[in-house]
Specification:
- The protein is α/β, with parallel strands linked by helices.
- The chain folds into two domains: 89 residues, Rossmann fold; 123 residues, Rossmann fold, CATH 3.40.50.
- The chain has ten helices and eleven strands.
- It has a six-stranded parallel beta sheet with strand order 1-11-8-7-5-6, sandwiched between helices. The chain has a three-stranded parallel beta sheet with strand order 3-2-4, with helices on both faces. It has a two-stranded antiparallel sheet with strand order 9-10.
- Strand 5, helix 7 and strand 6 form a beta-alpha-beta unit.
- The longest helix is centred in the last third of the chain and has 22 residues.
- Bound molecules: NADPH dihydro-nicotinamide-adenine-dinucleotide phosphate.
- NADPH dihydro-nicotinamide-adenine-dinucleotide phosphate (NDP) binds next to helix 10.
Amino acid sequence: MAAVVVDGNKLAQEVLSEISAKLEGASPKPTLAFVLVGKNHASEIYAKKKAEDCRKVGINSLLVRLPASFTQAQIINKIRELNADQNVDGIIVQLPLPPKIDENKIIEEISPHKDVDGFHPYNFGNTALGVGKIAPCTAAGVVYLLKKSGIKLEGKHAVVVGRSRIVGKPLSLMLLNENCTVTVCHSKTKGLPKYTRQADIVCMAVGKPRMLKASMIKKGAIVIDIGINREGEKLVGDVDFGPVSRKASLITPVPGGVGPMTRAMLIKNTFECYRMRRMENDSKKLS
Ligand code: NDP
């Protein structure tokens, strides 16, 4: 039997509607600042889509364009300004940054209270510990999507392929916190199929088109495709969708699976930053 194909757009819309209802009548509205350094076509498109989501739910967006010639110190100064700006609730520095800039240093400069991507070591640490409200968006989106699809995570063997700071690592930690047994694979893993074939849940976060073949999963596995690869005008995931969907029990498509969930979690994180900073007193901020 063919797998259930998860409708990420529908689930994401539910999250956006919830946030929109919570923000009804809120004054002032939250403001999310987008920092774009230099010109990057993909970053421009991502920022535009995120700003559109903000508009839909009643979050103001503030576009901060910095020239590619800006030094690391100049970018850091701008982030410090945004950290201090009481009207700004969330800050996104759109990655990638120009090669001369140390991305980690920039991420560390964003106030953890405004770190809507959830990449700051403080929020990452909380995510690893299974506490806190701000988790990296894609990982949070995957866990949300699995739960909303009725998957009982406890006791499942999850194999996460990819261990990046923004996707694979936080996802493996979040699944561990959900009581999955987690195996993490990466470019130095020897004999990948022997791991993926044991998985109840396979999460692909590599960036290689159609890498996961049907022969690499067991029958009835749950397959989460996080990869986004461009083939001309078309987007494809890391999963060989047709054959894999005939063997899996549940699968996410690309596009329309994890991508919209990532954006929805960004909106949710922005709301949480706003709520924690504006609606709770200082002593509760870090709880
Ligand atoms: P990175 O390039 O940072 O990480 C890729 C990971 O894949 C690394 O851990 C790497 O291992 C691993 N890898 C590379 N080759 C292999 C291989 N042959 N076998 C096993 N593992 C391998 O990418 P990201 O984590 O940032 O993104 C991964 C994909 O997810 C991309 O396609 C990206 O576009 C997409 N993405 C999608 C999002 C969404 O919302 N759907 C959000 C963010 C990203 P090693 O660590 O050893 O180098």
